[in-house]
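Complex record, two chains
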Amino acid sequence: MDIAEHMLRTGSRGFRDDLARAVDDLSRSVKGLGLSWSLAWHDVVSRYRGSILGPFWITLSMAVMVLGIGFLYAELQNIPLATTLPFVALGIVFWGLISQTVIEGCESFVQASGMLSQTSLPMLTFVWRTVLRNLAALLHHLVIVVGVIAGFGLWRTMDLPLALAGVGLVLVNVSWMCLLTAIISARFRDIPQIVMSIMQFSMFMTPVFWQPGERVGLMDVVLTWNPFFHMLDAIRAPLMGVAPEASTFSILVVMALAGWAVAFGLFTATRRRIVHYL
Amino acid sequence: MSRSAKPPTAPPRPDQAFISVRGLTLRFPVYGYDAKSLKKHLARVAVGGRLDQARHGSTTVTAITGLDLELRAGDRLGLIGHNGSGKTTLLRALSGAYEPDEGQIEVRGKIAPLLDLSLGIDPTATGLENIRLRGRIAGLSARQVEEKLDEIAGFTGLGPFLAMPLKTYSAGMQARLAFAVATAVDADVLLMDEWIAVGDADFQKIAHQRLLGLVERAGILVLASHDLDLIRLYCNKVMRMDAGVGSEVVSIKALDELLARPSVR
């Protein structure tokens, strides 16, 4: 009989034991990633049931926003459209990935309360579900990305492997944010509102639409200390054929390690009680 | 866990299944709606413990106290007790959803918690989609679900309605579908909570047959119910719970004697 069919649950035996359990939850959830994907895909399908365009509605509204903002900012900032439009397009698409995952992260456990309170499914399965659902949405929006890459000849200069590495690092980072917001939102129901405000504020503080000018004074502070700038830049800059700042990738790696340490530490400490929060 | 490779040649021998619960105590922190607001939480910190903790902190409900339970393959335990005596909580703990505060729970064998028929059911999805989704949640791989799909679909007797969204179903039809999927898993340990009778008379008859088959295949059954006839029908052992305290496990023959006892409390 294989190990998955043996279950042992005990009272807390201290932090090390709890940590081992949390790691076990993680490894079971990774082995069951297929289930997360099934749930995520089901979410996408059921959210847009009966609509003709389905998730492409979001793609379409993004495209409209890209065009509007692209033209406006090209005019406002006095930059050629050929630079602004791809910049804004990539900015909006990948910002959508980051912010939606973090915002929807809040619901990861709350939505799954039924399953969490009567099955032994690993809890992190539901974090992966949120991340994968947003990845599925991103796949639809790739239409825009491919469009600007082809339309503006970015493929000639872009560094695709680096951009993919950027996507990977961003996913690792949004995952811990997702876990963190999932736990805290289960306990405190005000958190989703706060997270939404933070993400909205960050959208304006991050060069999603506007081109960062010279890094002096306030601009330098805003960019250096804004984690979302580094996340966005790690994907967008290589696609635009620009080398991202030297520090960007190291910042993302450090952020991933530190973020996962904090989020996983909180998960270890609260895992037993999360089901009671719901 | 759904992907865990189980060699098809060696199915788990159900006689190996066992449940061992020792000194299980489960406490639920109840976070009042009061306590769930961050603002109030912060405000409380700011005031610095002047307020009475009992009024504002979380209250703890002890759902199960010091429960011992040993079951071997072939045991079919009926759980009886008043509302709120901890029957469902015990089932959930056995399913692995709740972590014990004290003591331990050990279960060997594949667990099928059939506690809530509506678990993982999406009313806007079609019958077939619901079968797939529910099967995946129950731990079947995508391929296993496809293999079982025809059997499950046949059992529901819903035919062309399976292509329709669940919200167009009558309550009885929904119950048929949910029952068919929930009982499609091969389990060694079956946990059930008071929902056995579903659908119309015809379906109840088939459902009964299927449950008997399932119980026979499963090594262990734990069934919580207020329906003593049901307990007599399915179970060979019985345990009574009173306010979170379990009696010893007795043979079903001693059910009347168990009932006649004064409350443990």
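Note: Chain A has a mean pLDDT of 88.
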